[in-house]
């Protein structure tokens, strides 16, 4: 017995619409059918126009229908039909699906004739007279006006901290106003911490023979830490909002680059990180960066690592956040470089067909990798399975989207390069073909990564710093590397490595101090050593509100070397480095030479 179900018996009286489709009707029957129909679409129609159901027009309507379908197949390049869709492959498209006769650029084609040729209309040049020395190039960034703003803001911040402190013996009570000259020395010492690396900041002031350095010759440890604590970058009258604490730093850097330098044609856009593991509402995480946690910077740079423009990303508080975030970032960083014929290289975080067309309208090329899930990608490229070495390309409105496979498939986009293939020799010595767009992307995209690499050689950052101070230190480090790039390019002198360039700049920030020459013991005995009061004084505040000026006390050098502590107000100015001594130790150390305190 068969398990096949019995076929359902069809009704012997088919519906009127089915008869209309199957039975050949004459003109009178068609008229009668239209009068009985409730469909408004046929009201007012002319019977002569309905040849596709009339007896005499049946054969011709079939061929006309085939021709119309063939026309639609040519107009719509590759229509895909889903099984769940009401539309079938044999059904003709409706009016909404018909492509516009004038909108031929809405289709992806294999013709590259829509690619545009845009000329670079600017000149890569230094916009100011070239300085004579490495220090002069750094001073283009660290101008007197900029440093004066930092000095004024830091002094205001120090006064606020001192007025709010509750501890009489806090170091902030000894604050003295900061000056531009002292700030330059402070910056020079900061630079030097990247050259002479020590694990802890206080190690630079150790008097032990293993840690002897020049830091104590220029600034005391307490003063250095006080300046580091009081550094501030909010101009007077500005809202003390979170992002305003670094606005002066970033704006000054961007304005300086706009004022002194115009970049070459090729630019790259990528993100970088300033290391920060503290609590901050806009702290970011980027897996592939040297510093995975920190403050995200969007950077426009040249392929050689010269930074052109920087934007600090403040997460949801940022002006570029929300829908279209990546396009807003690109527009903000390129605001002064559009309509000039630049070629921008970006990765798949930014690139899309929409962005490429917008940049092309502003005479700016765009090349880079492409996320396969982006809107408007050509489906025949994204879904195509390639063999190793194969490439597929499609064009639309001057934008080229392609896929190339080497070890793995790579989707790319370019409005500058078509599907030209170029021979290269890989590291195994094998000659292979690679798309020109991919080759140019690899050559020009590494500007930000190169800058991060150079900054990692001589880091000046320290732990436990406030986030905006880290932005400042990162800013002066970027200024150093940019100054070195400009020096090597425009000075006309032999190129300097980053180490040699830093050394010359640090030497100019920390001028040589006069050091007393070492004399023999006989010459020392001829001096008349005597104890004098320490000239340094400080103000003390008593609980009654009374203020008094007292002589500063120091630890006796003799007791200190024996790991004991005795305070004294006396020192010997005739001894090297003016050591402090109590009276007993002074005579014990000088009595054999016959010195007195007369």
UniProtKB/TrEMBL annotation:
Per the record, where are the segments of Polar residues compositional bias?
96-114
Compositional bias per record (Low complexity), positions renumbered to this chain: 84-95
**Record's compositionally biased regions (Acidic residues):** 37-73
Q: Which residues form the PiggyBac transposable element-derived protein domain?
A: 133-483
Please name the Pfam families in this protein's record: DDE_Tnp_1_7
Annotated region (Disordered), positions in chain: 1-114
Q: What is the protein name stated in its UniProt record?
A: PiggyBac transposable element-derived protein domain-containing protein
């Amino acid at each position: 017995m068969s398990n096949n179900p019995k076929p359902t018996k069809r009704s012997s009286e088919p519906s009127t619409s089915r008869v209309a489709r199957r039975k050949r009707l004459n003109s009178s029957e068609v008229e009668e059918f239209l009068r009985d129909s409730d469909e408004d679409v046929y009201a007012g129609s002319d019977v002569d126009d309905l040849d596709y159901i009339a007896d005499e027009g049946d054969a011709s309507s079939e061929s006309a229908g085939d021709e119309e379908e063939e026309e639609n197949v040519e107009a719509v390049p590759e229509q895909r039909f889903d099984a769940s869709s009401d539309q079938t492959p044999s059904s003709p498209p409706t009016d909404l699906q018909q492509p516009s006769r004038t909108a031929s650029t809405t289709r992806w084609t294999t013709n590259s004739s829509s690619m545009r040729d845009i000329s670079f209309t600017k000149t890569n040049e230094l916009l100011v007279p070239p300085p004579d020395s490495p220090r002069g190039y750094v001073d283009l960034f660290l101008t007197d006006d900029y440093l004066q703003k930092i000095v004024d803001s830091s002094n205001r911040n120090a006064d606020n901290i001192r007025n709010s402190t509750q501890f009489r013996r806090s170091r902030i009570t000894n604050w003295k106003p900061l000056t531009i000259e002292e700030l330059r020395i402070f910056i020079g010492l900061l630079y030097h911490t990247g050259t002479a690396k020590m694990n802890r900041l206080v190690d630079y002031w150790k008097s032990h023979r293993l840690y002897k350095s020049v830091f104590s010759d220029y600034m005391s440890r307490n003063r250095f830490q006080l300046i580091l604590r009081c550094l501030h970058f909010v101009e007077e009258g500005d809202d003390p909002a979170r992002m305003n604490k670094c606005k002066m730093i970033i704006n000054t850097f961007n304005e300086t680059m706009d004022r002194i330098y115009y970049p070459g044609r090729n630019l790259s856009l990528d993100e970088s990180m300033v290391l920060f593991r503290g609590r901050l509402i806009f702290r970011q995480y980027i897996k592939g960066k040297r510093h995975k946690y920190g403050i995200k910077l969007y950077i426009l740079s040249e392929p050689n690592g010269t930074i052109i423009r920087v934007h600090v990303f403040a997460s949801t508080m940022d002006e570029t956040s929300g829908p279209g975030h990546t396009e807003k970032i690109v527009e903000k960083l390129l605001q002064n470089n559009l309509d000039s014929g630049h070629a921008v290289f970006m990765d798949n975080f930014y690139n899309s067909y929409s962005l490429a067309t917008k940049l092309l309208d502003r005479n700016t090329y765009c090349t880079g990798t492409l996320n396969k899930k982006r809107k408007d990608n050509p489906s025949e490229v994204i879904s195509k399975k390639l063999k190793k070495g194969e490439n597929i390309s499609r064009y639309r409105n001057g934008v080229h989207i392609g896929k190339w496979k080497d070890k793995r498939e790579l989707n790319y986009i370019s409005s500058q390069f078509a599907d030209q293939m170029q021979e290269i020799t890989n590291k195994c010595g094998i000659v292979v073909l690679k798309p020109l767009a991919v080759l140019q992307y690899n050559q020009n995209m590494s500007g930000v990564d190169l800058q991060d690499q150079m900054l990692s050689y001589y880091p000046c950052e320290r732990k436990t710093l406030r986030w905006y101070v880290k932005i400042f230190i990162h800013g002066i480090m970027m200024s150093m590397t940019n100054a070195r790039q400009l020096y090597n390019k425009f000075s006309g002198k032999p190129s300097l490595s980053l180490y040699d360039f830093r050394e010359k700049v640090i030497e100019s920030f920390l001028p040589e101090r006069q050091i007393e020459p070492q004399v023999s013991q006989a010459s020392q005995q001829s001096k008349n050593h005597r104890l004098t009061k320490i000239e340094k004084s400080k103000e003390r505040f008593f609980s009654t509100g009374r203020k008094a000026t007292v002589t500063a006390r120091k630890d006796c050098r003799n007791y200190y070397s024996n790991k004991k502590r005795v305070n004294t107000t006396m020192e010997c100015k005739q001894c090297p480095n003016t050591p402090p001594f109590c009276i007993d130790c002074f005579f014990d150390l000088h009595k054999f030479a016959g010195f007195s305190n007369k």
